[in-house]
Amino acid sequence: MSLITIDQLDMAIPPARFEDLAKYIDFLNEGMERFEINTPARTAAFVAQLAHESGNFMRVENNLNYSWQGLRKTWPARFKTDEFAQSYHRKPEKIANYVYGGRFGNGGEASGDGWRFRGRGLIQTTFRDNYTAYSQAISDPSVVSDPAQLAQPRHAVMSACWFWNANGLNPLADAGTEDGFKETTRRINGGSIGEVDRLEKWADARAVLVA
Questions:
Q1: What is the largest CA-CA distance in the chain?
Q2: pTM for this model (two decimals)
Q3: CA R_g for the chain
Q4: Rounded Cα distance, 77 and 196, in Å
Q5: 56 and 158 fall within a common domain
Q6: Cβ–Cβ < 8 Å for 122, 60
């Protein structure tokens, strides 16, 4: 039995396109069952966060196509001067290798790991360590050797389900409180980015999925 139907998902995320949701629905039910996102409250919180993170299920990869001005604003400690930032202007691969290199299992900038293990999935998995942890959780080492799989529907969903469970987000969803949902946001992105949109999506999802 499905945890969520395509019609429920379509109603729960009004801005999303039906054809985008249809690519993921079977994998959502597979992943949510596997990682115990298996009650209406958990499902509502989960799909609301996914909808925000993925731009309503349209975006599963971080392309890092920043202008130099965007680099200065996003990573001021790394791009300390206009001149230095301009050397990375609209160069996504170069940017990824610099900002993600030498962190969380990634090799240094020259290794290419920053780009290789850039954010992918409906909740973007980033860094070699996280790809490795996910691959171990699902017993599939090919995820590390071929990380682009996380931009494909099954792994885009399954990695998000794994992240949700591994970071203890089910109990927060069970609480059903706004403070709990805000803490879910903090655990996903480290802050409160997009909080208003996330709360609105959560209200939409609960109206459909939670009696």
A1: 57
A2: 0.93
A3: 18
A4: 27
A5: yes
A6: yes
149 found inside a domain: no
Burial state string for 52-63 with b = 16 or more CB within 10 A and e = fewer than 16: bbbebbeebebe
Enumerate the H helices of the chain as residue ranges. 6-12, 18-22, 25-34, 40-53, 68-74, 82-86, 92-99, 113-116, 128-137, 142-145, 153-166, 169-175, 178-189, 195-209
Instruction: Give the type of residue at 205.
Output: A
CA dihedral 19, 42, 49, 168 (to 10 degrees): -130
How many domains does one find in the chain?
Answer: 2
Cα dihedral 186/145/135/29 (nearest 10): 80
193 found inside a domain: yes
> Pick from 50, 197, 198, 194: which is nearest to 123 by CA?
50
| pLDDT, position 1 | 55
What per-residue confidence (pLDDT) applies to 2? Answer: 74
